[in-house]
Automatic annotation (TrEMBL):
GO biological process: DNA-templated transcription
Keywords (A to Z) from UniProt: DNA-binding, Transcription, Transcription regulation
Protein family membership: Belongs to the LysR transcriptional regulatory family.
InterPro entries given in the database record: LysR-type_TF_proteobact-type, LysR_HTH_N, LysR_subst-bd, WH-like_DNA-bd_sf, WH_DNA-bd_sf
Alphabetical list of PROSITE patterns matching this protein: HTH_LYSR
HTH lysR-type domain span: 6-63
Gene Ontology terms, MF aspect: DNA-binding transcription factor activity; sequence-specific DNA binding
Record has Transcription as a keyword: yes
UniProt name for this protein: Transcriptional regulator
Entry-linked Pfam families: HTH_1, LysR_substrate
DNA-binding listed as a keyword: yes
Length: 302
């Protein structure tokens, strides 16, 4: 009879948290919640009858005994992975995950990050379609629907994962040609609009105490990604959602001429029918989105 062993899930949680020195990073690596890692570690501590970590605010430090134990069990996970690979298991058949999301969000935020999910979960084939159709009409076709929120739909589980605000953005070449020192200088510029978002500019101008300003010209597009592309091309000034223009601002394709005001905007949320909420593929993708949203928030709040 072999001596009893603790739960493999608990061991994986401890190994990842000990190696990374963070419950949050361990949760991201294993695609579970921070609470799940904390719970598994507590269960392991109860099983062992001894603490494994010293808690210091937002960081954790291994006890000396736990550090020695980790040094012994860490290589065992590597050996297990290598032995499994050598066994020559048949290649897994990809499991399809159907996702529906708005086009501009997909193009500017989701697609640039999607390779990170695919690298971790090669056995999950993500199929993405874009639309703005109502959530309820997509129930039978898609596993996850991404929309603004938070909203409540009967029979759906909603979880937010990405917050943003809106502020004016334009190309740096346009700003060199027609500088913007204050919101009243918008009188000399072309304002770029999206037909489905008619209140964005008026609401921002009201917050900037310039509700009656008349710009030099206006251009209206039927899709938001066209509005943002027009801003990149120097055609005028658009109201840019911070999450969707962050890469352009970082690369210098766009600049934000004013630090504020920042117009509050709806968060991006996942909506999943109750009967699909326990699907492993759905859980992994939702957790990954929430991790990416946290990473984005941390990088841009710093």
């Amino acid at each position: 009879m072999r001596p009893p062993l603790p739960s493999l899930n608990a061991l994986r949680a401890f190994e990842a948290a000990g190696r990374l020195g963070s419950f949050k990073d361990a949760a991201a690596e294993l695609h579970v919640t921070h609470g799940a890692i904390s719970q598994q570690v507590r269960l392991l501590e109860v099983w062992l009858g001894a603490p494994l970590f010293e808690r210091h605010n937002r960081r954790v430090v291994l006890t000396s005994a736990a550090r020695a134990w980790l040094a012994q069990i860490g290589p065992l996970f590597d050996q297990l992975a290598q032995a499994t690979a050598r066994f020559g298991l048949p290649e897994a058949v990809p499991r399809t995950l159907a996702v529906n999301a708005p086009a501009t969000f997909t193009l500017r935020w989701l697609v640039p990050r999607l390779e990170k999910f695919r690298a971790r979960h090669a056995d999950i084939e993500v199929r993405i379609e874009t639309s703005n159709e109502p959530v309820e009409s997509l129930k039978d076709t898609f596993d996850i629907v991404i929309r603004g929120g938070p909203d409540t739909f009967y029979g759906y589980a909603m979880r937010p994962f990405l917050a943003e605000e809106r502020l004016p953005v334009c190309s740096p070449t346009l700003l060199e040609r027609l500088p913007l020192g204050a919101p009243e200088d918008l009188r000399r510029h072309t304002l770029l609009h999206t037909s489905s978002l008619p209140r964005v500019w008026p609401d921002w101008l009201a917050q900037a105490n310039m509700p009656a300003i008349t710009p030099a010209a206006a251009l209206t597009f039927d899709h938001f990604y066209l509005t943002l592309q027009a801003a990149v091309d120097g055609m005028g000034i658009a109201m840019g959602p911070t999450a969707l223009v962050a890469d352009d601002l970082a690369a210098g394709r766009l600049v934000a001429p004013f630090a504020g005001p920042r117009l509050p905007s709806r968060s991006y949320c996942t909506y999943v029918a109750d009967e699909k909420a326990r699907d492993e593929r759905v859980a992994l993708f939702r957790s990954w989105l929430e991790h990416e949203g946290d990473e984005f928030a941390s990088a841009h709040d710093a």
